[in-house]
Amino acid sequence: MVVLNGSQLTIEQMKAILFENEGVEIAESAREAVIKSRTAVDQIVQQNKTVYGINTGFGKFSDVSIAEEDTRLLQLHLIRSHACGVGEPFSEVVSRAMVVLRLNALLKGFSGIRLEVLERLAYMVNHRIHPVIPQQGSLGASGDLAPLSHLALVLVGEGLVFQSGRHVPSAEVWRDELLLPIELEAKEGLALINGTQAMTAQGIVGYIEAEKLAYDAEWIAAMTVEALRGITDAFHPAIHEARGYKEQIEVAERMLEWLKDSKLTTVQGEMRVQDAYSLRCIPQIHGASWQVLNYVKEKLEIEMNAATDNPLIFDDGETVISGGNFHGQPVAFAMDFLKIGIAELANVSERRIERLVNPHLNDGLPPFLSPQPGMQSGAMIMQYAAASLVSENKTLAHPASVDSIPSSGNQEDHVSMGTIGSRHAYQIIQNSRRVLAIEAICAAQAVEYRGVEMMSPKLGGKWQDVRNVVSSFNRDRNFSVDIESVASYLGRITVQ
């Protein structure tokens, strides 16, 4: 069980919750903070103090007062009207992440929501009750209103949940669980939907997959180095220490480890003086992408432990402040940065693919790695597919965060578009994984021509892993199936 207290959740814990179905429980200290915060909201309602979202309308309607007897109905109207998401739903793993993150944020005790509601969110995580949440419709401020409204609808028995590959009404699920839907009270609807958990949830899932892909990119690149009889001097630690970037130094170290005891690699002057950039500059290029990943991880771990709704309640209710922590700009920037970092891993991978298949560049390998050049095309069109994917990535990498459009009668006049950024980042990760799958297929084929027995022991093991997924091609076939099979292999997430 992962104990949630609103301030110490990590990416590694999220990995266990999302990919190993680890359960969650609420820390006792968080329970106390939540109860205090809720008591403050009850007092505000009883004393008829005017506080945004408790007894006022929302957005442009913030100056409209709501009678005490209508404060519950106000919250139900809020989530119904704001559930305007459209398009395909987020994946079930992203939906699970969203529930965990919203729960963790509300456990900080600044939101005025009842413990009963948060216990139900924890129940949803532990019993795999995952809301069906459309991907499109969020501006990323006031947070992810539309996606989180679909999450909140499940609590009140009006939304849909995933169940065995189907979308099932939540009312049926609660009946099966012998539980009643939640009846929201003052501020609770707003507390549930005013936050950045859609962009952050998709960002976390994207980051976890991107981190795995960045490690995979190194052994795949190393296999290409062997296939092209690359020069290992370029990975000498002195070069990278002379520049000083930690991530670059670490990539170079890992490259040398992958290539240790290889009889296929060369030294400078043995066959050529230096390699092309796509081989020689692997530590510099991949290392820069690792810098991006480290930045993204830092921002996500702050955001996943942040209070992101509005208003926030402090000093046992003595201080209630309307602010803008729901604004997704920090996450939007991080997601746009992630897009660039991962797109570049694919860009350089595609250039290595070209060197593997191009007879003018591949140092004597068969043209397009074809078993019968001319009669059979071999890997020719695999390179086309890689080129198409990296070109698509360039379009998706356009920053979402540079866009903004006013909403709510110009009250909400600058928004982050962070959820669009996180969705596009995830698309780039999927595209890039397929590009690297193509490189892995081509590199595995190429080293067979050189001599598998001459590979480094570590890379020989990886070659066998690839061969366990796809066989060597001694004749043309439907390579789409191979690409998807290797991409699926690369996409498996394991928890240490």
TrEMBL record:
Full protein name: Histidine ammonia-lyase
Gene Ontology BP annotations: L-histidine catabolic process to glutamate and formamide; L-histidine catabolic process to glutamate and formate
PROSITE patterns named among the record's database cross-references: PAL_HISTIDASE
Major localization listed first in the record, in broad terms: cytoplasm
E.C. number: 4.3.1.3
Origin species: Rummeliibacillus stabekisii
Key words, A-Z: Cytoplasm, Histidine metabolism, Lyase
Pathway membership: Amino-acid degradation; L-histidine degradation into L-glutamate; N-formimidoyl-L-glutamate from L-histidine: step 1/3
Domain of life (superkingdom): Bacteria
Compartments (UniProt record): Cytoplasm
Protein family membership: Belongs to the PAL/histidase family.
Residues where 2,3-didehydroalanine (Ser) is found: S142
